[in-house]
Amino acid sequence: MFYRDERLALFIDGANLYAAAKALGFDIDYKLLRAEFMRRGKLLRAFYYTALLENDDFSPIRPLVDWLNYNGFNMVTKPAKEFTDSMGRRKIKGNMDIELTVDAMELAPHVDHIVLFSGDGDFRPLVEALQRKGVRVSVVSTIRSQPPMVADELRRQCDNFIELDELRDVIGRPAREPRVQADENVE
Predict the structure, then answer these.
(1) Lesser CB count within 10 Å: N end or C end of the chain?
(2) What is the structure's pLDDT at 56?
(3) Biggest CA-to-CA distance, the chain
(4) What pTM was computed for the model?
């Protein structure tokens, strides 16, 4: 469903893609992901959206954000909001839907095909609006997790649904071998 001469843009909902890959039991190698879509068409932009906790320099996502920033991804971040819910649980809120939507609509006149890495049904109106502008939209998520990570209305609206699990061998990070601690007494 890709044409080699079409202008592509990737829009990655970081939290949603991470959750989908985790539900399928693998990690994404973003270098391989970018290379795969460069092979499929003329990749103009690859956006990655995520919220970051302020004052949290040692966030587990910080090394990924820094790596992506230096390796061809346009990083879009904003401070996450931390709050305590009515049950006294610490919660973090950092929705990037509006930022992703605005960027996709602004880029629409310059691309032929947008690949949205998210299963969030809130993006259905965005997909519909992009299609009205003549842009083809593929959605990457999964129906193979329990529960499925893609909203049915989003899957029905897009031009092409790409099952994330089918990309595992192409964009998945190889499993790490467990570290064996060397025993100094072994000859």
Answers:
(1) C
(2) 58
(3) 70
(4) 0.88
Map residue 115 onto helix, strand or coil.
strand
> What gap in Å lies between CA 22 and CA 18, rounded to an integer?
6
CATH superfamily for 7-46+92-171 is 5'-nuclease (3.40.50.1010)
Query: Which tens digit of pLDDT belongs to each residue from 154-169?
Result: 999 999 999 999 999 9
Does the CA dihedral 101-107-113-114 come out positive or negative? negative
**Which pairs count as long-range contacts for 125-130, CB under 8 Å and 24+ apart, including other chains?**
126/100, 126/101, 127/154, 127/157, 127/158, 128/157, 129/105, 130/104, 130/105
Q: Are 136 and 128 in contact (CB under 8 A)?
A: no
Residue 128 identity:
E
- To which H or E segment does residue 141 belong? strand 136-141
